[in-house]
């Protein structure tokens, strides 16, 4: 390719050089080499630019009420011209388990219906880890209703309250004052249930929320059984019916709950761990026997 001199004689004529580049690809390499030789290493404009003064214009945002074209096209394709639905950020209403339990318990007209209702109650997490629902045992027409805490391992397996070692001690205790769970005579029997129908994992104490959740079932259970006296054994039933805790302070002191006489006693499991407390438990049993004889 023949180079054409520039008017000043210091290099090739730019116009002629550009025309030559267009005709010969070898000239492209020559042009790049020439620009590099001149110190040109980036593409710039004819005039300098102050980057600190550059204003970048952002595209205007569409109006809030304007429907995006792709959404409108989709609606038109489906034949839907209804207004777009707005997203409601408010949280979903929370279920009140106590209110649900209260409504379900109130609707039970018999003990059998109450048992069915408890077995169908799914808002307590304890139910998921339990093998069985432990409802009650004994004579439901008995004058004495014993309210325990929660099922243990053996109770969870068998599905009846107080069947383990503590249950056998309880049978001997009440048998000493002429009461058994097997007797058909209401005056010679007792009826027994728990605050919690499901075993807490690791035999832990039920939480206040769990006690409050299942209290409506306990109240309805007592109302349907309609005993002459309630015996609470342990802190959990004491809390459920009176709102107080401290069974060692409360034991042996008569009070009322649900408009019925109530006698707090220590749990048989505590008596197995603390044999010295059996004398106080015997005094409580004698007080219960005296109450029944007088009534």
Helical fraction equals: 40-55%
Strand content: 5-15%
Strand arrangement in the largest pleated sheet = 1-3-2-4-6-5
Structural class: alpha/beta
Count of strand segments? 6
What's the order of the H and E elements? HHHHHHEEHHEHEHHEEHH
Rg, alpha carbons: 43 Å
- pLDDT averaged residue by residue: 85
How many helices? The count is 13
Distance separating the two termini? 131 Å
Poorly predicted residue ranges: 62-66
Shape: rod-shaped
> How would you sum up the major sheet?
6 strands, mixed
Give the helices and strands, then pairings.
Layout (H helix, E strand, L loop, with lengths): L13 H10 L1 H13 L31 H10 L18 H10 L4 H9 L6 H4 L6 E3 L5 E5 L4 H6 L6 H11 L14 E5 L13 H18 L3 E5 L1 H8 L4 H4 L4 E3 L2 E6 L2 H6 L4 H17 L1
Parallel strand pairs: 2-3, 2-4, 4-6
Antiparallel strand pairs: 1-3, 5-6
Helix pairs in contact: 1-2, 4-9, 9-10
